[in-house]
Amino acid sequence: MFGVRDLIEQAKFGSNPEPSEPVPLIPSCNTDTVSCLRSYSRDHPLFLQPSNYFWEKNQSLNQLPYGIQGVGKTRMLLHAIKSSTSVKLLCKRCIVVGNGFRLKNSLLGEVIDSYDIVIRLNNACVYKHQKDVGKKTTMRFFYPESADFNQRLDNNPDSLMVLVPFKPMDINWMNKMMKGDMWVRFWKRPPRRWKVNPENVRIFNPYFMKFAATKLLILEENWKNKTRVPTLGLLGITFALHFCDLVHVAGFGYPPVSVNNTESIHYYDRVSLKSMDRTLHNITLEAIAIKQLLQDRLIHNLTYF
Asked: 20 to 30 Å CA-CA from 5: which of 55, 59, 189, 235?
């Protein structure tokens, strides 16, 4: 029967050489990011702050999802929520938990919960999947259409709800939710009512969206006209590389392309690869980017990729 260390070692999936010593539960911090990523800097706030909106020197030059130019209601929302995080550790060990089917029956729950920071994505279920994905949620990245998770069963009382705005309507939706109003006009209906403690809400800094698009995916032509945008998975990794001292991932990757693409892509539902046919994401480029990060040892994977 595998133990926790065996699971960690088994999960290296060939991206790193075989270790000569047993791999610790969570390896020591690495500091190579600045030498491997172009224009990398930790001088950017993790979340939007009032200073991003009010101070002229910080005015955004880009519109959503790469900046907040022209989003008038951002100011009102920033008054209602906090913009900082209370996580203060000398060495932050983080894991970004993807929603991939390969987490099913992985038995990685205990391992995932052992990290300092656990980042989850979209409406990924935790309830009834704890043995595979754990039960700890430090942050959950979402946008309105993916906010249909169970806040009581799939999050913790102190989990940070990080809104990733792709369009001005996303900011408007959050403003409505903070006031207890209803909102329904989206391509996919988001929650009409969404009770959340303002203390636990943050707004993702669009800087990381632009960094992922132009530095990791190299979407030099497409990012300006928004024909391609990064997935929340890659945004979670980008965020973690700027926030954490060690970054692990689990549950990333899609099943191989087949004739009818009917294999499940999530561990918690039956959504298939066919649903990605009309997506704005370039999953091929993202796979290449993630493999490069693995090769450079900036991140490590607990599941095969």
From this structure: 235
| CA 189/CA 251 separation, integer angstroms | 26
Write out pLDDT tens, residues 36-49.
676 788 888 888 87
* 3-state secondary structure at position 111: helix
* pTM score, whole prediction: 0.82
- Domain formed by 4-301, architecture: Alpha-Beta Complex (3.90)
pLDDT digits (tens, 9 = 90+) for 235-264: 999 999 999 999 999 999 887 766 457 788
Which one, of 108, 170, 135, lies nearest residue 304 by Cα?
108
In order of 172, 196, 233, 249, 290, the CA distances from 254 in angstroms are: 32, 32, 12, 14, 13
Q: Which helix (H) or strand (E) holds 117?
A: strand 117-121
Q: How crowded is the C-beta side of 15, counted as CA atoms within 13 Å?
A: 24
Which single residue is written with the structure tokens 């990791």? 216
Tell me the C-alpha distance between 120 and 10, whole Å: 22
